[in-house]
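In practice, a research group might receive sequence data for several interacting partners and want a quick structural hypothesis before committing to experiments. The following worked case mirrors that situation: the sequences arrive first, and a predicted assembly follows.
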Amino acid sequence: MAMTARIWVTLKSGVLDPQGKAIAGALDSLGFSGVEDVRQGKYLEVKLDAPDEAQARQDVERMCEELLANTVIETYRFELEQA
Amino acid sequence: MAMTARIWVTLKSGVLDPQGKAIAGALDSLGFSGVEDVRQGKYLEVKLDAPDEAQARQDVERMCEELLANTVIETYRFELEQA
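A structural hypothesis for the assembly, expressed as C-alpha coordinates:
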Protein backbone atom coordinates (compact mmCIF):
# COMPACT_ATOMS: atom_id res chain seq x y z
CA MET A 1 0.00 0.00 0.00
CA ALA A 2 1.51 3.35 -1.10
CA MET A 3 1.28 5.98 1.66
CA THR A 4 2.54 9.48 2.40
CA ALA A 5 3.66 10.51 5.87
CA ARG A 6 3.74 14.21 6.77
CA ILE A 7 6.15 14.64 9.68
CA TRP A 8 6.79 17.67 11.90
CA VAL A 9 9.94 17.74 14.01
CA THR A 10 10.10 20.68 16.41
CA LEU A 11 12.19 21.68 19.37
CA LYS A 12 10.71 20.86 22.77
CA SER A 13 9.36 23.94 24.52
CA GLY A 14 11.97 25.42 26.80
CA VAL A 15 14.81 24.43 24.46
CA LEU A 16 16.61 27.53 23.16
CA ASP A 17 16.07 28.07 19.42
CA PRO A 18 19.01 30.14 18.10
CA GLN A 19 17.77 29.83 14.51
CA GLY A 20 14.37 31.10 15.54
CA LYS A 21 15.98 33.98 17.40
CA ALA A 22 18.08 34.88 14.33
CA ILE A 23 14.98 34.86 12.11
CA ALA A 24 13.07 37.00 14.60
CA GLY A 25 15.95 39.50 14.58
CA ALA A 26 16.06 39.57 10.80
CA LEU A 27 12.30 40.09 10.59
CA ASP A 28 12.57 42.94 13.06
CA SER A 29 15.29 44.61 11.00
CA LEU A 30 13.05 44.26 7.93
CA GLY A 31 10.45 46.32 9.79
CA PHE A 32 8.16 43.57 11.12
CA SER A 33 7.90 45.10 14.59
CA GLY A 34 4.93 42.91 15.64
CA VAL A 35 6.92 39.66 15.74
CA GLU A 36 7.19 38.29 19.29
CA ASP A 37 8.72 34.85 18.79
CA VAL A 38 9.82 32.49 16.01
CA ARG A 39 10.36 28.72 16.35
CA GLN A 40 11.79 26.80 13.41
CA GLY A 41 11.48 23.05 12.87
CA LYS A 42 11.61 20.47 10.09
CA TYR A 43 8.74 19.36 7.88
CA LEU A 44 9.20 16.12 5.95
CA GLU A 45 7.08 14.27 3.42
CA VAL A 46 7.97 10.59 3.14
CA LYS A 47 6.48 8.38 0.42
CA LEU A 48 6.56 4.78 1.57
CA ASP A 49 5.15 1.40 0.70
CA ALA A 50 3.84 -0.79 3.52
CA PRO A 51 1.62 -3.91 3.80
CA ASP A 52 -1.00 -1.91 5.74
CA GLU A 53 -1.53 1.34 7.67
CA ALA A 54 -0.62 -0.16 11.04
CA GLN A 55 2.78 -1.28 9.71
CA ALA A 56 3.31 2.09 8.04
CA ARG A 57 2.55 3.83 11.34
CA GLN A 58 5.08 1.64 13.16
CA ASP A 59 7.71 2.26 10.46
CA VAL A 60 7.26 6.05 10.59
CA GLU A 61 7.39 6.01 14.39
CA ARG A 62 10.68 4.14 14.24
CA MET A 63 12.06 6.46 11.50
CA CYS A 64 11.40 9.42 13.80
CA GLU A 65 12.86 7.73 16.87
CA GLU A 66 15.97 6.40 15.09
CA LEU A 67 16.85 9.17 12.63
CA LEU A 68 14.53 12.08 11.93
CA ALA A 69 14.22 13.50 15.46
CA ASN A 70 16.79 14.00 18.20
CA THR A 71 14.33 12.98 20.91
CA VAL A 72 16.49 14.52 23.66
CA ILE A 73 15.61 18.05 22.48
CA GLU A 74 13.03 17.50 19.75
CA THR A 75 9.50 16.21 19.58
CA TYR A 76 7.72 14.86 16.49
CA ARG A 77 4.23 14.23 15.20
CA PHE A 78 3.01 12.85 11.92
CA GLU A 79 -0.03 12.25 9.75
CA LEU A 80 -0.41 9.29 7.42
CA GLU A 81 -2.54 9.18 4.31
CA GLN A 82 -2.89 6.87 1.36
CA ALA A 83 -0.95 8.20 -1.62
CA MET B 1 -4.43 41.05 18.38
CA ALA B 2 -2.01 38.22 19.28
CA MET B 3 -1.81 35.60 16.54
CA THR B 4 0.20 32.51 15.64
CA ALA B 5 1.22 31.76 12.06
CA ARG B 6 2.12 28.17 11.12
CA ILE B 7 4.30 28.33 7.99
CA TRP B 8 5.46 25.53 5.70
CA VAL B 9 8.31 26.25 3.29
CA THR B 10 8.98 23.42 0.85
CA LEU B 11 10.97 22.94 -2.31
CA LYS B 12 9.01 23.32 -5.55
CA SER B 13 8.32 19.97 -7.21
CA GLY B 14 10.99 19.18 -9.74
CA VAL B 15 13.69 20.88 -7.67
CA LEU B 16 16.33 18.35 -6.58
CA ASP B 17 16.32 17.74 -2.81
CA PRO B 18 19.79 16.50 -1.81
CA GLN B 19 18.86 16.53 1.89
CA GLY B 20 15.82 14.43 1.17
CA LYS B 21 17.93 12.03 -0.88
CA ALA B 22 20.46 11.73 1.97
CA ILE B 23 17.69 11.00 4.47
CA ALA B 24 16.15 8.40 2.14
CA GLY B 25 19.55 6.72 1.85
CA ALA B 26 20.05 6.72 5.63
CA LEU B 27 16.57 5.27 6.19
CA ASP B 28 17.32 2.55 3.66
CA SER B 29 20.56 1.65 5.41
CA LEU B 30 18.60 1.47 8.70
CA GLY B 31 16.46 -1.20 7.06
CA PHE B 32 13.43 0.85 5.98
CA SER B 33 13.23 -0.74 2.54
CA GLY B 34 9.74 0.61 1.79
CA VAL B 35 10.80 4.27 1.55
CA GLU B 36 10.38 5.61 -1.98
CA ASP B 37 11.03 9.34 -1.58
CA VAL B 38 11.76 11.93 1.11
CA ARG B 39 11.29 15.70 0.78
CA GLN B 40 12.46 17.97 3.61
CA GLY B 41 11.25 21.51 4.21
CA LYS B 42 10.98 24.08 6.99
CA TYR B 43 8.16 24.46 9.48
CA LEU B 44 7.97 27.73 11.41
CA GLU B 45 5.70 29.02 14.15
CA VAL B 46 5.65 32.81 14.37
CA LYS B 47 3.90 34.61 17.23
CA LEU B 48 2.97 38.10 16.13
CA ASP B 49 0.82 41.00 17.15
CA ALA B 50 -1.26 42.78 14.51
CA PRO B 51 -4.21 45.20 14.49
CA ASP B 52 -6.42 42.60 12.77
CA GLU B 53 -6.30 39.29 10.88
CA ALA B 54 -6.11 40.94 7.45
CA GLN B 55 -3.00 42.89 8.47
CA ALA B 56 -1.48 39.78 10.04
CA ARG B 57 -2.08 37.87 6.80
CA GLN B 58 -0.36 40.61 4.78
CA ASP B 59 2.57 40.70 7.20
CA VAL B 60 3.10 36.92 7.09
CA GLU B 61 2.84 36.93 3.28
CA ARG B 62 5.56 39.59 3.15
CA MET B 63 7.72 37.72 5.71
CA CYS B 64 7.63 34.67 3.46
CA GLU B 65 8.32 36.63 0.29
CA GLU B 66 11.15 38.72 1.76
CA LEU B 67 12.92 36.32 4.10
CA LEU B 68 11.50 32.92 4.98
CA ALA B 69 11.22 31.42 1.48
CA ASN B 70 13.55 31.56 -1.50
CA THR B 71 10.68 31.88 -3.94
CA VAL B 72 12.88 30.90 -6.91
CA ILE B 73 13.05 27.29 -5.69
CA GLU B 74 10.68 27.20 -2.72
CA THR B 75 6.97 27.55 -2.20
CA TYR B 76 5.20 28.45 1.06
CA ARG B 77 1.81 28.19 2.69
CA PHE B 78 0.61 29.26 6.09
CA GLU B 79 -2.26 29.10 8.53
CA LEU B 80 -3.16 31.90 10.92
CA GLU B 81 -4.94 31.50 14.22
CA GLN B 82 -5.59 33.69 17.21
CA ALA B 83 -3.11 32.91 19.98
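Before designing any experiment, note the following. Chain B has a mean pLDDT of 97. Strands of chain B lie at 2-11, 35-49, 74-82.
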